[in-house]
Amino acid sequence: MPISIAPAGAELLIRKVAADDKVKRHLHEMGICEGSKVTLISSSGGNVIVIVKEGRVCLDRSLATKILVA
Question: Can you name the CATH fold of 3-69?
Answer without folding.
Answer: SH3 type barrels. (2.30.30)
